[in-house]
Amino acid sequence: MKDPNFRNGDAKTDTFGSNASLQPAPDQFIPEGPTTPETAYQMVKDETYAQTQPRLNMATFVTTYMDEYATRLMNEAISINYIDETEYPRIAVMNAKCINIVANLWHTPEQEKWKTGALAIGSSEACMLGGIAAWIRWREKRKAQGKPYDKPNFVISTAYQICWQKFAELWQIEMRTVPISLDKTSLDPEEAIKLCDENTICVVPIMGVTWTGLNDDVEALDAALDKFNAETGYDIPIHIDAASGGFILPFLEPDKKWDFRLKWVLSISTSGHKYGLVYPGLGWIVWKDKKYLPDVMSFSVNYLGAEIRQVGLNFSRPAAQILGQYYQFIRLGFQGYKEVQFNTLAVAQYLHDQIGKTEPFVTFDKTCPNPLFAWLIKPEVQKDCKWTLFDLQDKLAQKGWMVPAYTMPDNIKEIVVMRIVVKHGFSRDMADQLLSDINFAIAELNKLEYPTPTRIAMEKDIEIESSKFNHTGR
Ligand SMILES: Cc1ncc(COP(=O)(O)O)c(C=O)c1O
Q1: The whole model's pTM is what?
Q2: Partners of 372 in the beta sheet?
Q3: How does pLDDT run across 307-318, given as a tens digit for each residue?
Q4: Which CATH code, of 3.40.50.980, 1.10.600.10, 3.90.1150.160, 1.10.10.250, is assigned to 333-472?
Q5: For the chain, what are the domain ranges?
Q6: Dihedral through CA 136, CA 139, CA 141, CA 146, nearest 10?
């Protein structure tokens, strides 16, 4: 062997005394040789040092806290690939049990022992599966009727999450949007119906709208669609994107009819990794009955006497999240979920209330039905204010908080809001710390003599924003 260093590592050298820690981290080519695990660990760890601590990340919807047993279970299952169902048949069954539990939380009428649903990597995949199933059902029906099936569309509000744009682009299905406005902050059922025609594969209401935290009125949409379908002879269904609400409403608003109790709701998706209380990535989709899941999407497997349907865009995927979800179901039970969601919502409502009382803010909506909400600088105050919420975002980041500022969707995109998503693991005490840091940041920003760059950039939009807010009397 010519190279004297080949297979000649030295684990005795201090990590920061090693040659490796004098080298730039690789960003183009794999390093020529190995380094010690200590040094490799340190380098990777240190690259992530400057990031937000997950529990101070108020931007994400995704679980940032699980208890030690859940974490242990998930870590122990880290090497398991869910798709290896032959090798890990109990996990396939556990997955089916989770689907059953979710389906029953949403009042599935399906009587089969194993309900029709699927595991996904998150709501994005689950939404895609719901959309694809609706599209294939529509296509097959059109084919059978000898009608063209090349111009499918679906209807959703402009406050859609980006996954729906992906769905539209990737599957070439026209997305028809109902604008949200300050007068109509969620999907207007009548406006949605106006966009429907014979090529509409489904309408998609959202429970826990990403931008505002509000819920679309599925019951009103269902009634409007029922009338429209009866008049036209169509059978346009509903897929509900319940990414957040799917695990909030069953516990906190059990009497609210938003799920499979409604006639035209044929599929619902949610994120297990949001208010399902599991670390990323986990999503669920459930169909009202197996007849709504096209055969071409479903592969039947038989384990331990259980007939299990396998559906998904990915092949390999981690199994640990299934263990995490099943653990949470057993650990918390209905009562425990209710307690956690109650507290999470109570802390969000407390923050909503406090921020609404803080000058110069006004909350986007008077209500806070889910544990997330948005607020803005009162338009009349913003005129004379030297800073914007983007500056506040930066100030809070200096204290470790990630509280995002962003512009609203089309139609009201001149409005800049800030949003907080409260999650399991965020206590009233932490909320008070955040409020104190917000107040401190406001006091600092109010000392500015000159407008910030983001404030200067905003100038021409403020008039529009102000008049719209005066108009709605908020
Ligand atoms: C309403 C809605 N749908 C879909 C998604 C996508 O979810 P995921 O990140 O689980 O893919 C989100 C994420 O925030 C969402 O809020």
Answers
A1: 0.94
A2: 421
A3: 666 799 988 899
A4: 3.90.1150.160
A5: 72-330, 333-472
A6: -160
